[in-house]
Q: What sequence folds into this?
């Protein structure tokens, strides 16, 4: 892992990774303005954030810490705070608090 | 006005930064444990700036996987940003230069995208460049600082904290989703469909097992598509 050749290969790898990550991020932003989108496509794109949030949250949240019940505890506490309070920062702190509390009490 | 937008963006990004630091620390610790050269890990956080794929890359490197395979995996994992970029573009202030758009493109992650997409600013219909730039800058900064902490002093953190921090980003996603679906039943449906679809893609044995990146992409497209049909049907009635 430490030889010169290997280090060079890994640098090439990182450059490659950054390109294949950047290109999908940039293409729509840079070239979409040429087109006039039809209303259905616009509706579709507007729903993407909420669909993506759903898909990102579940089921991965179950495996987000080393203990499933503690993750669920944090998630539920975050959801309750988000529902009644709505503040993002407090929600994140509540989620961490719920998980830490569970792990501290029961593990 | 421009400056206050930048500051507003930086402030709005604090929850993301809070979630990124522990994850980036974990990344630093992992790459140190797998004996990846420190400068490579730092360069990765600076130029790739995408959590999941960086973890996977370190993992594959430690297994001795070839360069080509790691790059293809990274592409598959991060292709969802293509959808996010197209969606976010509809919400950014119009007539930005290519230079500014290419800067903003670099900052698209699951978290900056989600936060920016659900943000409603006073007096602004679309999101100004400075606001998004601030939001992305603080996230990028946190990701890199976290990486350095993990690389150079990761082992001094208490295990309880290390174990629990994985919840932070999910709590943030919940904090973004819940207030939105509280006000709108169709959005609630879309989110639930996406969760169900994603679970089925993982669980059903007869579906080909795809990488998690593709699963998210397929679940997102499917749920948005069904949601579009529902909304348009309602609009006609």
A:
């Amino acid at each position: 892992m430490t030889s010169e050749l290997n280090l060079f290969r890994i640098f090439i790898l990182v450059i490659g990774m950054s390109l294949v990550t950047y290109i999908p991020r940039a293409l729509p932003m840079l070239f979409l303005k040429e087109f006039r989108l039809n209303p259905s496509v616009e509706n579709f794109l507007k729903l993407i954030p909420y669909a993506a949030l759903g898909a990102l949250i579940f089921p991965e949240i179950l495996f987000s810490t080393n203990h499933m019940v503690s993750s669920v505890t944090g998630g539920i506490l975050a959801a309750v705070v988000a529902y009644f309070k709505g503040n993002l920062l407090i929600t994140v702190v509540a989620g961490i608090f719920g998980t830490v509390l569970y792990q501290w009490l029961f593990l | 006005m421009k400056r206050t937008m930048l500051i507003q963006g930086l402030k709005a990004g604090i929850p993301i930064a809070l979630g990124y630091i522990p994850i980036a620390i974990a990344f630093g610790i992992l790459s140190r444990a797998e004996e990846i050269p420190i400068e490579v890990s730092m360069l990765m956080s600076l130029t790739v700036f995408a959590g999941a794929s960086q973890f996977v890359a370190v993992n594959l490197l430690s297994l001795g996987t070839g360069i080509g395979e790691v790059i293809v995996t990274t592409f598959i994992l991060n292709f969802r940003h293509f959808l996010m970029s197209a969606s976010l573009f509809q919400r950014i202030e119009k007539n930005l230069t290519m230079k500014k758009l290419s800067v903003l493109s670099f900052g698209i992650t699951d978290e900056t995208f989600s936060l920016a997409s659900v943000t409603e600013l006073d007096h602004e219909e679309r999101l100004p460049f400075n606001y998004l730039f601030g939001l992305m800058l603080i996230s990028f900064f946190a990701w890199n600082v976290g990486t350095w902490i993990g690389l150079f002093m990761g082992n001094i953190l208490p295990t309880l904290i290390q174990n629990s921090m994985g919840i932070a980003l999910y709590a943030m996603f919940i904090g973004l989703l819940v207030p939105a679906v509280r006000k709108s039943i169709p959005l609630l449906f879309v989110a639930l469909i996406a969760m169900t679809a994603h679970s089925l893609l993982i669980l059903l044995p007869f579906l080909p097992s795809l990488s998690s990146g593709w699963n998210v992409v397929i679940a997102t497209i499917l749920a948005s598509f069904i949601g579009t049909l529902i909304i348009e049907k309602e609009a006609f009635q």
